[in-house]
Write the structure tokens for this entry.
Amino acid sequence: MLPTNNDAAPVLSVRGLKKSFGSNTVLNGIDLDVPRGKVVALIGPSGSGKTTVLRSLNGLETPDGGTVTVGEVSLDFGGSVTKKQLATLSNRSAMVFQQYNLFPHMSVLQNVIEGPLKVQRRPRAEVIAEAEKLLDRVGLLEKRDAFPFELSGGQQQRVGIVRALALKPQLLLFDEPTSALDPELVGDVLAVIKELADEGWTMVVVTHELVFARQTADEVIFMDGGVVVERGPAQEILRAPKMPRTQLFVQRLLHDI
Amino acid sequence: MTSNWDLITSSLGPIISGAITGTIPLTLASFVLGLFLALVMALMRISTNKVLSTIARLYISVIRGTPLLVQLFVIFYGLPSIGVKLDPWPSAIIAFSLNVGGYAAEVIRAAILSVPKGQWEAAHMIGMPHVQSLVRIILPQAARVSVPPLSNTFISLVKDTSLASLILVTELFRQAQQVAAFSQEFMILYLEAAVVYWVICLVLSSAQSLLEKRLDRYVAH
């Protein structure tokens, strides 16, 4: 199921990413590398720019400067970028949204096959078989004909993950995937994400779940004010952060747990 | 009394035939064309292109700010003086479509804007280009929201088509008028016409409820 590619280069490479909204600088030169099969967790206070990094990788925001490389597609946002180029870049990755953003007028199965069938134009039978397999994996096969409103938040988010997987992306992006969930539903979703990590998917996860980040991420990046404040192996950053801002942030969040 | 009843039953034929060959096709044709125009205007109005959105805004303002009867007369009686001579039917369809286009554009615009931004983003995420996102993801959701107000527009249109009698289109009301002029029984004939309009609108109202139920099946209650 994983896209096979023996290339040793990073799946994702970001250099000098910049983005402003009006006079407000949200990203001020972000560098990021994610090797194949690795998981990077982006943490930081709200407004630190971590979600904007993620959205820039998927074409939901257009950066003002910097380069983004996903797989074999590379775009320099310092120059002019066409819609087509942007689409080629964003089609390399798939995103799981904080608010799930499932299509409410489609059944669970339709949500999952919409992209592979209507955009990628792959054969219907093949697409459905794959979708059912993926739904089965997250324990939701019997919900294939249900509408999203009939599912719990945790179930909706698992469908959101399956929808992303069905696109066969090279890179999975998670934007605070459990922030909108009731606490008792968080575990199921995190378990699925951890499984995908173990399976070798390349992922960038924006999260506030530090315990999850420590268990799942290979690298943790702490952002604040549009810059990377500190980065390193998950254990190191979360157990013994060096920078005062990181220390404060980690202490505060871990106290909540 | 007997002669009144005879008049009612004998005039029902022409009145209903006026509904079937005039009112109903006129309404349907105008509504379909009007909806299409409204969708285009709504998209232009939402568009970030200043020229397009200004044109749409102006169009909507003119249509909503002038009487339908005046619009109809400008097209049928006014245009010939600048060399555009249209028959009653095309004139009526053009006038009513333009009118529906103006009113429904605002409804459709509001409905499109009511769909959460996250739906556009999810559509984009699965790789959909803008137009495909609109057609497959946004409009089906906007349709649900716009059924009640568009049904109002539709039902108003059924009644407004009676104005076409003034430009000689043979529809329900014109048939009633002709029988009334002949028999001099204005009260009976006009009430009869009113009842037929009412029955048509009752049928449409129940169709509206059915449609709303169908479109509501994916929303929590």
User: Anything to note?
Assistant: Chain B has one domain: 2-218. Chain B touches chain A through 22 residues (CB under 8 Å). Residues 2-218 of chain B form a domain with the MetI-like fold fold (CATH 1.10.3720.10).
